[in-house]
Amino acid sequence: MEWTTVETGDGAKLSVRLFKPPASGAEPDPGEDVAVVLVHPYTILGGVQGLLRGMAEGVARRGYTAVTFDMRGAGRSTGRASLTGSTKVGDVVAVCRWVAENIMPRSILLVGSSAGRFHFRFSLMWRNPVAIRTFSFQFMGALISQI
């Protein structure tokens, strides 16, 4: 597990954790070159990336890179949490942009629940050449068993 910081367009610094699959020495198949970005629930109600560690570790054990992050105002991230969550969309976009530019996967799978699901849906308005797919936490168990 590695830590990094991603800066948003308006200057908030987001705490990001990267969970890499165990080293196998082999290049991933093109169909498996997917990064999974997990979006935590509503910050005001206690949502933080730490809640997603078990899921992220499970994704990494199955050979995929997983990314968790604290949205602004949560955990180690700067900025203030908002009641409306409008700034959180920019947080999701900033992390996806960082993943696209630094990890360079073929596609990004966004997974979220509660307000995290809401934020990632609006972040799909971001134009990026990397394909983005979305799932909610309710389907994460089924997803992990399929990959």
UniProtKB/TrEMBL annotation:
Coiled coil: none
Gene Ontology molecular-function annotations: hydrolase activity
Domain of life: Eukaryota
Domain Xaa-Pro dipeptidyl-peptidase-like: 10-102
Cross-referenced Pfam families: Peptidase_S15 (PF02129)
Record-linked PANTHER family: AB HYDROLASE-1 DOMAIN-CONTAINING PROTEIN, ALPHA/BETA-HYDROLASES SUPERFAMILY PROTEIN
UniProt-recorded name of the protein: Xaa-Pro dipeptidyl-peptidase-like domain-containing protein
Species name: Miscanthus lutarioriparius
